[in-house]
Specification:
Beta Polymerase, domain 2, homopentamer, seven-stranded mixed beta sheet, 362 residues, 8 helices, alpha+beta, Methane Monooxygenase Hydroxylase, Chain G, domain 1
Chain lengths: 362, 362, 362, 362, 362
């Protein structure tokens, strides 16, 4: 039962792209993580300034906007769509973007508007049950701010925040475009972790297969791994396109010197993608191995049966002959008839053994 | 029998592209839904006006044309080709377009003419027998009208009509191009529903497979799912091209601000397409699972046979030995000979059991 | 034997591309349909004129050339290469074109020359033995004539001729380019018929497979269908390229208004191609089904064997025990010993039955 | 043993691309055909002149160069690299080209230099053991000469030489570019022959498969065919690129009127390529057929076993019953007991036969 | 156990792309080869000068830089990142490049900067355990220097160094771009060696398969070969792109006359790639062969069982009949009854033999 429940959670669900048949541009949350209060986590910084601020009041975010500092606003919780709309209108986000922010199964993409870029991507992680889950994240990058929208708290950006706080690297001196890059970079870094985890699962599975224990669940596990790889690809492949477009984009929002970093990021995401493809091929290989393992086992079973049957069936026949009740069977009266027969049986036995040895079945 | 009939309905039929060997441009209905009277459903609206009107008289449609309002004419029934021709001539549609309107197996496409756009697409739905059927729909979009041609009444646009009636969203204030977008959007929304239904069927099938019950129909059901996916792809892939061309088209009929919506639509149809590809891969995985399930079962059958035979064949041989009628078989005269033999048999029995346990067959 | 002969006819033969090692441009017929006299079928028409004329004298074709009418010359029979050369020289065809006309395995292509277009394509049809055969056809289209070359009489253009004769459609008023389009259109129409026939064969095969009858020829029939699909693709795929190039060609020979028709034709040939791809995938599915069917049958055979053996082997062993001749076997003397044993046997029998029922083998 | 040796010869060897770690541009022969003397075969011709000349003295080749005639120099033997260098320097060939000439596993390519074109291609032929071998050939085409380098004598150009000698076709009147074309044309013609031979082997193999004889070598033969196809593709695919580049090249060395011929050549090589792809697919089909054949045979074996066992095991049990030695077995005393039992056995026998008939196993 | 350890070493590991969540541009070594002292191997040369110099002092490298000679600095050991940074800053390398130098799993790529090119590639070799290992190498090419970074000493450039020392080829007279080419050329040469080694392993495996010995490890070895091929592709495919970009790059750092060599290099790397693809296909073929081998063996096992059982089961039944104890069995009293029966048994025996011969099972 446990195995079945697990499997079901694995099946990639297609949720409605939007609450069905609503007018395009309608802001309606489609995910499952309902919260009562939208939570904001705001970091405001410049080369010689750092301030972090948490609040539940959306309006608080507006105070930071006019400053010459870079402001990173992290919005946790999408179910309270009024807050999203308030925020969206304040930053003058197009209706369709507001819709995409709360449409949790929107695929990764980038949209270029006059005053900001809009990027959707997925965070992947293995939860406590080793299930791969993906979280919908969207990000608006303007001249001096980045607003990020997540379904729930908890993400992969803690190191980034620490770097910001302690002024490590060039981030505090850079503009909002570098912050955007740093966020995507942390996401891709995280993909490496996920792929590594997957690679470990693959190795464990491969060992299991070689250990020759009969585990009828192996096929399910292989199937699950395939689905996880499909899930990862669904996050990685479109993000690769996003970064590629980002690299080629000639936007005034992106500084020349950030381009090198984006190219680097592109290299990394290609690398993730190639690894995924390689693991995919390896899983197909595992499948083949599993099939041949089954066939080999069946072969072995058949051999045992054939050897046993081939040895004893003729012997039993011989015993049957001399168990007949014909009145005139001279051999039965021979004094050593019984022993002669036993000898003949031993001969037959070893002839069969020799035959199977020659056939390399023994 | 039921299973077979069902399967047959599934087989995608290729109907003649047109009544064969007619002159190109001949308007001849190729579908199967014959009706006596073409039915028109006309909605005429502007930002402060809404009127809905049903009729069987084609000429009634002409009254709305000159108004400054947007007119959406829904033509149900294609078998009465005279009506189609009348209408087509009134809107000055090219002969080839008139032909495409009634050629039910025309694949989705877009044609650009000077005064109008012509789009063919497919509506998909599961009927009451859970059979996937597709319906041929074509649409002509002019400056201030949209004429849509369907084979029969009943479609996926009820929510759209309601939005029109109640003036929800920006639709009432927009031009005909936005109506065209809204129609395509509703169609793609519907594809999501269809794919979701398919995903449910896939899950049910997967559970069946894991439930280990022997169901000889599983292979047929997998085959059916494959065909449904082929059918969906046949509708989705060309429509993706259509929307892509629509996005890039520089037509005076499409307003600048509608373009954002079309790009959004394009994202969605790519998403449908990716889901279809993923389900396709999952079905191939199911097939593999089914094959290994069969092999595993055969393996188990073989093991039972081998264990039974390997245990009892040697024992039967021993019994056969002492059933022989040789006059001189001293063991037969031993007082405890019988019991010794029984003991030996028990030994052999447990030796075999131990052997199979070690081989992990038991 | 019949099956084998049939299969052999199916194997796509690669014939020499030309009588080997001849100088390029040598006009040598490579097909198998030898005829004594080249037969000409000439139709000369304009909007108010129609004349049909059959002859064996090549020179007769020259009379029509200068007329302001459109002349369609149908040349049946390619083995008499002198006639082809005479005709070719009269129309000033390049040597390589004359070679291509009689090289029956030339793949479909289009060549643009200053005064004419040269198109090679294949006519497909199922012959009386349901074998798919293809016929090499080439066509030269000049300003006011179309010359078509076929290996033998009999083609798919009868309806076209009738339309010409009775002046149906716009064909009588159009130029030679429209005639060329109409010919290609008839060919593509015919591909639809062929694909439909194939789809019927596929359905019959699928029914056979489900009918569970053991037909060892099914694998051969699947293989034959695969070959037919390869054959169709070999005709369709390059013709698609031809029509595509035709659509994009900026030739003075093709009028603007014909372009719409060619685009339509292109849509149709894409549709044929997609159908072929879908049937191809379905045949692979059939193959899989066949494999699982075999495996399932083997499974069933194994089960019957296992059940029979598992039930009777232990019983026979029991009977063997009490067939032994030990002098001291007290059970043999029990008055009801025999009946007790029979009872035990019945118990074992039902225990086995219960075991197999629980395993769902019965 | 013979089969194994054969197979080994089949395995495509990757030889070092050059004697490893030599300086680029080092002229070192990498093939296996060592000869003592380079042999030259020179044909010098113009429209009214033909001269053929064989020599072992490299310097002799220089006499022809200045003539206004076209000179075709055929160099047989590459192991004597000094000769190659002498010749190469005389024709002012780049060091890298001289290296490519003697590097026998160089893949087909074309290099354009100021005064000449350099083309590498492969000649394929089946040797006397029906093994497919490929020979490295390179060709330098200048304004009025073609120098061709082969590893050994013997090639596919005899018909071409004859045409030259007897002045057939337009070759004697054309320039060196046409000679180059004619050489490539002969090579592609030869590919047709090779593919045809392959197609015959395929057919023989298919017949073997249908003949149902058990030939354990079939799988090896299929594997060998696959390798041959890989070999052919390795020669054809890059040559297709070469011809494609040749067609598009705007070189002063290639006359306008030769272009038509090159386009024709391109058509032919595409045709070879398509055939190879089709045969490749057919071999995969053969593989599938072989697998199902094996499965079908196993099925048949299983059925025979099951039928024999299922019929006789119950009968033997019955006989075992009445072979027991219970003192009180009333049936044994019935006068017709034996005959009743025989009757019962016959009944069981026919019941089983009927059962297997119903299951269609008989 | 040994087999398992071996396999594990084979599994391509994905290491973190950088010490995770460090700031982009952080120089942190990610490999496993820790050394205490970075070792430098410097070659300084011009057409009439050659000097080789080894040191552990990074600063020593700076002496050579200003000379008009070409300087090739080989840095062995990446774990001492301070040295790398010192060197990197001296040559004014971008932070991201310094990061890439020590990030051992960076995939092959080329970056163009104003004053230098940066290339990452992989050296492949089989270690003493026949395990394929790859080593991360990066290279910076400036106007008159090449700096190469390796994880450890030992490489494939000894012949190149020798050529430099002895002034063979054109290398001493050429610029730094030719040195860069020569290094890449040596690397690609080495790929040929690796592929050749792989091809040998493939052949050995194929022979094993044909030798028909039952080696349960074959499937693991096939799997290992697949992984090695994946590894090689991971090194070759991106390097192909690198060389392609190098060929098309219009950098002042690359002289015109070097371009021909780079084009040649590109040909070679395409050739490696094609070979890898061919071996990949051959391994899939091996897999198929292995599957059919298993099936064939099972078939043979089944046949032996079937023949033995089918022959002796009926005979045993006959013996069972006459072992029954019916009081009235007239045959038992016939004087020659026993011999008649033996005769009948011999008849049955030969009938079965004949039957199996006819079925070609014997």
């Amino acid at each position: 039962m446990a195995a079945k429940r697990k499997r079901k959670q694995q099946t990639p669900k297609i949720e409605p792209k939007r609450a069905r048949n609503l007018s395009p541009g309608t802001v309606k949350y489609t995910g499952e993580k309902s919260i009562t209060k939208t939570q904001l986590d705001i970091i405001d910084y410049s080369i010689d300034h750092y301030e972090r601020f948490e609040t539940h009041n959306i309006k608080d975010a507006f105070n930071f906007e006019d400053s010459s500092h870079i402001t990173w606003i992290n919005v946790n919780g999408l179910s309270n769509t009024d807050d999203i709309i308030t925020l969206g209108n304040h930053f003058e986000l197009h209706k369709l973007i507001q819709e995409d922010i709360v449409t949790t199964n929107q695929r990764p993409k980038i949209d270029e508007y006059e005053n900001y870029l809009f990027i959707v991507f997925k965070m992947l992680h293995y939860d406590e049950n080793e299930q791969l889950t993906n979280e919908h994240v969207s990000m608006v990058m303007g001249k001096d701010y980045v607003v990020m929208f997540q379904e729930a708290e908890g993400d992969v950006f803690n190191d980034l925040r620490e770097r910001l706080e302690h002024g490590k690297g060039r981030i505090r001196g850079a503009r909002a475009d570098y912050l955007m890059f740093a966020i995507l970079d942390a996401v891709v870094d995280n993909y490496f972790t996920v792929v590594e985890f997957l690679s470990n699962k693959l190795e464990v599975l491969e060992d299991k297969l070689f250990d020759d224990k009969e585990d009828p669940n192996i096929i399910e596990e292989i199937q699950d791994l395939k689905k996880e790889i499909l899930k990862i690809r669904k996050a990685v492949v479109p993000l690769r396109e996003v970064v590629n477009r980002l690299e080629k984009m000639e936007s005034s929002l992106i500084e020349e010197r950030t381009n090198k970093y984006i190219r680097d990021l592109y290299d990394h995401i290609i690398q993730v993608n190639e690894s995924v493809e390689i693991y995919r091929e390896m899983i197909w290989g595992l499948m083949d191995m599993y099939m041949t393992t089954i066939s080999n086992k069946m072969n072995e079973v058949m051999k045992v049966l054939t050897i046993m049957a081939s040895i004893f069936i003729p012997l039993t026949f011989l015993a049957g002959i001399y168990g007949m009740n014909f009145s005139n069977m001279p051999e039965l009266q021979y004094h050593y008839g019984y022993y002669y027969l036993l000898g003949a049986m031993v001969l037959v036995f070893f002839a069969m053994i020799w035959y199977f040895k020659r056939k390399k079945w023994l």
